[in-house]
Design a protein that fits this description.
The chain is an all-alpha fold. It is built from 21 helices and no strands. It has helices at residues 5-8, 13-33, 43-52, 69-85, 89-100, 107-125, 128-140, 143-160, 165-169, 171-174, 176-189, 201-213, 220-224, 241-254, 268-271, 274-289, 292-298, 310-329, 339-356, 364-370, 378-385. Helix 2 packs parallel to helix 4, helix 5 (89-100) crosses helix 7 and helix 19 runs parallel beside helix 21 (378-385). The longest helix is centred in the N-terminal third of the chain and has 21 residues, at 13-33. The radius of gyration is 25 Å and the shape is elongated.
Length: 452
């Protein structure tokens, strides 16, 4: 590849980029056919990509090439066609990596800009091969850059162009892998610490509808990716469960009525939709967690792999403690008095269901330690004080928290003798119109309803 540079120099920027993409495709096809393991693009080829596609100057004395907006659009169309026409996924993935894998140099900024535009166009015109390659990129790249890509897509489809949300909605069916990684990235981006870091209403509606339509969506990458024990701490989480749980627990306090309008200048009427959306999302997350025992057993990972990390939960309880302290400083109104208890109820339910279904592997003492700064809550206290048992034998899932888990998916496992059942208790009435109380999971370990 290095010997074609002289032939590219006289060409205009678009023609040179198009020619290089053509040669890059041939070069990678030959690389794959050679059987070299692992196939790897050499440094000379990376330099050509940076010079003629990303337009990073080769040295300080060489002026940087620049494309017009029209030429850039044409280049994006050529790239879309190139990936669409290449039938071999291995070649596509290597080509995408050659173009967009971060190298730790000045060209990375140009990489990120071009990547954001290419993925945004791929969503608009339905180029599934590019979305699949982008899903792999999100899986192996530092979360800081994943969040940047997510921000570009949210801006393009939820902020800058009114009415373009339905186009983004379609990624659920076009590329579930990319959709799952996108959810993980946006839950990392929007941590509800400030009004700027609250998800736009349209995005929240999309995510809720995606998960309600297909609860297994958030497990797609976990189900289809070989997992190693050394998942890089800098990467996105394996699933978006931790981020979604953080949204649900913090939402009642982050969206308090005494704040100015949240959700990107939405109207008061639209702001009223937030509570039911997070209630629906919380229920969906619990339902996904209840799918895990069978899935983990099938993969031989029950009791061996925690999809929720203690570090993430410690950060959540710390944020929640801070939000509760801030809430105490304001005179509580009738409407907002129930919100702290709702947040704590959701945390307790999430912890209970996570431990009962093998998503969270920790001791009762570990939970007490990370929840030590939180105020008293009946349900949370019951979760923290109930017995928790774990077994090393993955074919005998742990019965968690209580001997009253007869309706739990775990109890249906053939190694367990069903225990006496308890009738479900009535649903507690809503204590706040915007954030209705969650129906207690009658199949879980505690036949108990907290009083607000």
């Amino acid at each position: 590849m290095g010997d074609i540079r002289q032939s590219l120099l006289p060409r205009d920027v678009l023609s040179a980029a198009k020619e290089l993409l053509y040669h890059l495709d041939i070069y990678i096809c030959n690389l794959v056919q050679s059987g070299r393991q692992p196939p790897q693009v050499d440094s000379k080829t990376q330099e050509l990509v940076e010079e003629f596609i990303l337009h990073a100057p080769k040295d300080r004395n060489t002026p940087a090439r620049r494309m017009s907006a029209l030429q850039e659009l044409q280049l994006l169309e050529i790239m879309c066609s190139c990936f669409q026409e290449q039938s071999r996924d291995t070649v596509r993935q290597l080509m995408f990596s050659a173009l967009f894998s971060l190298q730790g140099n000045q060209a990375d900024e140009s990489r990120m800009v071009l990547l954001g535009k290419l993925v945004s166009m791929a969503i608009a015109v339905g180029r599934v091969p590019i979305l699949e390659c982008a899903a792999s990129w999100l899986q192996r790249t530092h979360r800081v850059y994943c969040v940047r890509l997510a921000q570009v897509l949210v801006d393009d489809y939820c902020s800058l162009v009114p009415g373009s949300g339905p186009t983004l909605q379609n990624i659920h069916s076009a590329s579930p892998r990319f959709c799952c990684q996108f959810i993980t990235a946006v839950t990392t981006l929007y941590d509800l610490t400030t009004e700027e870091l609250t998800p736009p209403l349209e995005l929240l509606q999309m995510i809720v509808s995606w998960i309600q339509d297909d609860p297994r969506l958030v497990l797609i990458n976990f189900l289809n990716t070989p997992l190693s024990g050394n998942h890089p701490i800098s990467s996105l989480d394996v699933t978006p469960l931790g981020g979604l749980m953080r949204w649900c627990v913090k939402a009642p306090l982050a969206y308090k009525g005494d704040k100015k309008q949240a959700l990107t200048n939405s109207s008061t009427e639209r702001e009223g939709e937030v509570g039911p959306l997070f209630s629906a999302l919380h229920l969906s997350v619990l339902q996904v967690l209840m799918l895990l025992p069978n899935i983990l057993n099938e993969k031989g990972l029950y009791g061996r792999l925690a999809l929720l990390q203690m570090e993430s939960l410690a950060s959540l309880t710390s944020d929640l403690s801070r939000l509760l302290d801030q809430a105490d400083k304001h005179a509580p109104s009738t409407d907002t008095r129930a919100l702290p208890q709702l947040a704590l109820d959701r945390l307790a339910q999430a912890l209970q269901v996570s431990m009962a279904n093998g998503a969270l592997l920790c001791s009762r003492e570990d939970l007490r330690a990370i929840c030590s700064r939180l105020p008293h809550n009946n349900l949370l206290q019951l979760v923290l004080s109930g017995p928790v048992m774990y077994y090393n034998n993955i074919h005998s899932p742990a019965m968690a928290f209580s001997p009253h888990a007869a309706h739990s998916p775990i109890a249906s496992h053939p190694t367990h003798t069903p225990l006496p059942t308890h009738p479900p208790l009535p649903t507690h009435p809503s204590s706040h119109p915007q954030y209705p109380a969650q129906p207690f999971m009658t199949g879980m370990s505690f036949p108990f309803r907290p009083s607000h």
